[in-house]
């Protein structure tokens, strides 16, 4: 209702006046204001996020094309302390010319959002957001060079986002000479801070190499220092399969949308074709339980009927979703990865059987390393991964941190203050793999604490911790024995001397007694 014009000193608006101010907000405008949601809340993180978005895309593209990834990351300082040019090049499949402007100049444009398949990217925001941040802070466009094969031309583009429309604006378009036969290079200039250590580009690349042993990454830092993370295996991970949604995880709104969008003309075939694990018979049973005709047209199903369908689905026993949509790292490679980075006394790893949250499959892998050169008196190092991508920020909000803190570590011989992660010379690695990882925000740095996911993480970590407890107990026992042995060793010469005195042995005999007692002591050592 229209408001009356106001009392003194206060400007009030009528509904008509308010109406004039109300207009659509484009997704790009929204994220320009809310850049923290995308991981661009401070200059240090902005640089990391930019590298991460480009490298994650390169790895996804290479794996989808069945190519062993070779990635070149180069960061150069341009004018001023806080300006960098990030250049990420891959030997992937390249991008077809017509798609380049939209991929880099439009938010929410990508190939991964509408499918259920495990990949690093999900949302279709990552790389265009990095380009948008770069343009916002330096005024420079994203530059892309891409070639799809040795006989094809290499295309070069300079693109920015028209944030009002969320549409690309091409500033330059060319065919260029390029020494790569196939692949993509993305260049973004941005305001940032380069620092080594925790939460840095180095740490991200190092951890990426750990979780992706099939990748080689060449890194050139702004100070000119070069580093190569060489691949530890020539074998690409098993290709995860795409799956359809499982009916147990579906919500009413989504069911209604699927009914509207389906290509099937009959309800029974819709249920059978558009979902996984619904046989023709099960589909018929669902229709019967919901009291809807099997040949009903999906587009004509009303909301109440959809509601009945959903209730009927939960009354039918269906198999769990197929699990070949997940490609785990594997116990052996997790251990190998940890060994490459950390010198420890013990390495343990576990790959759990797949589980399901909201009808979506997921799998937890965990690794544990103990002792060696790791610091005795500090908090345990936790390495979090989602679909092989290291998660460095938003630690406190992540299901992995929650689950690790909930484990009673003292029970396994590790120090812990109440409700926190453990402390000691300990590395804990957790990998959550799923065709849809539920992140807490678009920056994809923390996993939402779904109870099913937290529980599986706890079980995986506890499985590792049980081995750790056995190892620590054995080590404690050995140390105790060693202490006793040293104590006895000290008395052996005195025993020899006393026996010599009482029984009148010669010096040779005394030495023999000393030797025999030492041998017996050595033999008692536990293996
Ligand atoms: N280096 C590349 N090689 C081939 N295709 C690429 C490359 N980079 C991006 N793409 C394509 O561009 C799309 C958009 O990338 P973008 O990073 O914006 O989104 P995404 O990876 O799908 O999801 P997310 O927002 O979670 O990163 C990808 O889905 C992919 O199809
Ligand atoms: Mg991406």
Structure summary:
The protein is α+β, with helices and mostly antiparallel strands and 527 residues long. The protein is 37% helix and 18% strand. Strands 5-4-3-6-2-1-7-8 form an eight-stranded mixed sheet.
Keywords summarizing the entry:
527 residues; alpha+beta; Heat Shock Protein 90; Helicase, Ruva Protein, domain 3; Ribosomal Protein S5, domain 2; 4 domains; eight-stranded mixed beta sheet; six-stranded mixed beta sheet; 14 helices; 14 strands; 37% helix; 18% strand; globular; binds adenosine-5'-triphosphate
Broad structural category = alpha+beta
Task: Give the mean pLDDT.
Answer: 92
Q: Cα-atom Rg, whole angstroms?
A: 31 Å
The structural domain count equals 4
| Fraction of residues in helix | 25-40%
Number of strands: 14
CATH topology group of the largest domain:
Heat Shock Protein 90
What is the correct CATH architecture of the largest domain?
Answer: 2-Layer Sandwich
* Shape call: globular
| Percentage of β-strand residues | 15-25%
H/E element string? HHHEEHHEEEEHEEHHHHHEEEEEHEHH
CATH class of the largest domain: Alpha Beta
Question: How are strands sequenced across the largest beta sheet?
Answer: 5-4-3-6-2-1-7-8
Strand count, sense and barrel status of the largest sheet are: 8 strands, mixed
- CATH superfamily label of the largest domain: Histidine kinase-like ATPase, C-terminal domain
Which ligands does the model contain, each kind named once?
A: adenosine-5'-triphosphate, magnesium ion
Distance between the termini: 85 Å
The stretches of 5 or more residues where confidence is low (pLDDT under 50) are none
């Amino acid at each position: 209702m229209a408001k009356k014009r106001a009392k003194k000193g206060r400007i009030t608006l009528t509904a008509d006046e308010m109406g004039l101010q109300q207009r659509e907000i484009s997704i790009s405008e929204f994220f320009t204001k809310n850049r923290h949601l995308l991981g661009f809340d401070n200059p240090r993180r902005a640089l990391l996020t930019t590298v991460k978005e480009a490298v994650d895309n390169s790895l996804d593209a290479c794996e989808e094309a069945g190519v062993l990834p070779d990635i070149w990351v180069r960061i150069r300082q341009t004018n001023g302390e806080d300006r960098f040019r990030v250049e990420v090049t891959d030997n992937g499949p390249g991008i077809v010319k017509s798609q380049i402007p939209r991929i880099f100049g439009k938010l929410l444009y990508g190939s991964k959002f509408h499918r259920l398949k495990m990949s690093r990217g999900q949302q279709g925001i990552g790389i265009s957001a990095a380009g948008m941040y770069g343009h916002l802070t330096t005024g420079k466009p994203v530059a892309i060079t891409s070639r799809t094969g040795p006989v094809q031309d290499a295309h070069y583009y300079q693109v920015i986002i028209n944030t009002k429309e969320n549409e690309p604006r091409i500033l330059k378009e060319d065919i260029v000479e390029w020494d790569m036969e196939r692949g993509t290079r993305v260049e973004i200039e941005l305001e940032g801070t380069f620092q080594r250590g925790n939460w840095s580009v180095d740490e991200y690349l190092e951890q990426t190499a750990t979780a992706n042993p099939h990748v080689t990454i060449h890194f050139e830092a702004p100070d000119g220092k070069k580093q190569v993370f060489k691949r530890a295996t020539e074998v690409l991970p098993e290709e995860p399969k795409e799956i359809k949604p499982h009916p147990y995880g579906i919500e009413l709104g989504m069911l209604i949308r699927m009914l509207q969008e389906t290509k099937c003309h009959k309800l029974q075939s819709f249920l059978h074709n558009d979902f996984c694990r619904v046989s023709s018979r099960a589909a018929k049973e669902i229709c019967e339980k919901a009291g809807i005709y099997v040949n009903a047209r999906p587009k004509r199903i009303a909301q109440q009927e959809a509601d009945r369908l959903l209730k009927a689905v939960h009354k039918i026993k269906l198999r769990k979703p197929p699990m070949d949509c997940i490609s785990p790292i594997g116990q052996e490679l997790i251990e190998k990865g940890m060994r490459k980075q950390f010198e420890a006394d013990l390495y343990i790893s576990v790959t759990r059987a797949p589980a399901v949250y909201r009808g979506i499959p997921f799998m937890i892998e965990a690794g544990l390393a103990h002792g060696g050169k790791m610091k005795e008196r500090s908090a345990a190092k936790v390495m979090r991964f989602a679909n092989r991508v290291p998660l460095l920020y938003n630690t406190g909000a992540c299901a992995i941190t929650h689950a690790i803190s909930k484990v009673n570590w003292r029970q396994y011989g590790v120090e812990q203050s109440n409700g926190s992660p453990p402390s000691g010379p300990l590395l804990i690695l957790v990998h959550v793999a799923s065709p849809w990882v539920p992140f807490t925000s678009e920056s994809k740095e923390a996993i939402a604490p779904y109870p099913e996911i937290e529980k599986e993480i706890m079980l995986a970590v506890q499985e590792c911790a049980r081995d750790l407890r056995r190892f620590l107990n054995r080590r404690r026992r050995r140390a105790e024995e060693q202490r006793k042995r040293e104590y006895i060793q000290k008395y052996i010469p005195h025993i020899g001397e006393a026996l010599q005195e009482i029984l009148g042995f010669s010096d040779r005999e005394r030495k023999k007694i000393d030797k025999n007692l030492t041998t017996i002591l050595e033999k008692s050592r536990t293996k």
